[in-house]
Amino acid sequence: MLDRYWLRVSLVFAPAAMRLRASRSNVSASQHCEMGDDRFIPVRNSKQMNVARFLLTKNHKSNIQKSHTVYCFCGTLFLLFIFLLILQFGGRTLNDPAGCQNNLKVKCGQTRMPASVQKARYVSPVPDRILDAPEVQNDFYLNLLDWSSHSVLAVALHNCVYLLDTTKGGIISLMKLECEEDYVCSLSWTKEGSYLAVGTSDCKVQLWDVEHQKRVRSMASHTARVGSLSWNDHILSSGSRSGHIHHHDVRVAEHHVCTLTGHSQEVCGLQWSPDGRYLASGGNDNLVCVWPRVQDGGLGNRTQAIHKWSDHQGAVKALAWCPWQHNILASGGGTSDRHIRIWNVNSGSCISSLDTQSQVSALLFAPNYKELVSTHGCADNNVVIWKYPSLTKVVELHGHDDRVLNASLSPDCSTIATISGDETICLWKSFEVDPVKKHQRERTVQSLNTSFLRSMR
Q: Which residue ranges form the domains of the chain, and what is each CATH number?
């Protein structure tokens, strides 16, 4: 690249240099004439000599002016050339692409693409995998899907619970209710992924040790079906069709430690915040409630809600806490509402609202790209990815023929699992990390581990 610059400069400077040499020869000739020399004068009569002297004197003055102009012009071109070099190479940090061995090619050939023309992230419009889900309960108010930290997907089909290992591909049947008329209403994994809580239509909450495929305990405290569950350390919260929320301390025999009574109809959405400070609940009474962390206390201890929002005009089942902003809560309304609302729990205000034109059945925050995922029922039956916090649409995913009932995010946050009334489960690989960024992240982790080992020595 530097050779091309010098070639351009030489092409510009060559004519100017030739003119400069010619002007210098004219000046020297005139100086010789003034001293009485007879160079290049073939005729030597007095008339010819006077004419020649006049012409040389005149050219001498004009050539001096021309020489000054040429010098100024060349100086300007030189300064311009230096300025272009500074713009081209100054102030830029050039990173060698992975695997590149020729540093000269990197420095001379690498260009930065403007942000306005950068290629957008590709999201596949079709599912990565489609699984059968026969006899799924096509009920909007139930929560039939959850993904563990060990990449095991739990699915409730009528009165059975199945476990799908998404890394190895194996499927096992974990449990089946004794009564054929009963059905599973909700599922929730512990943070460690070793235990699974199961809410049933016979008003009970069962706790299963997945590794040994054994039921640890069955907890009865509700008077109606248990449609929502959420863990916070050793506290398991359960929401019922009665409108009550119960806190269960699974470490003790008297597990029922607290009752929350903020809803007048079925509690169909229940989510603890990532930091464990707040519990969000949504109900068929169109309310969104935020509760403080449960305190150690006796049976029947009642707690008042910090916030109770009534902006939605339909049932609120879809709830999601932002993992990188713990004070941000997203909620979605049913068929009569169809809105996604973003709440600031600290101030108690609604930050933004969006009409999705469709029933909102589930919400998920995707941290890999700072995006929000919503699943829908009537009338679109689709999955939509939104940029957060602008809530501008990134892409729509169509793969179900009936309403999407639930959604869950994989442990690495790269894949969404959705279950639908069409008796299928779709796995959408929509948030895979850029290989370059992934390589840089792994290299950073490796360097940190190396420095840690050195410090241990």
A: 138-295+303-440 (2.130.10.10)
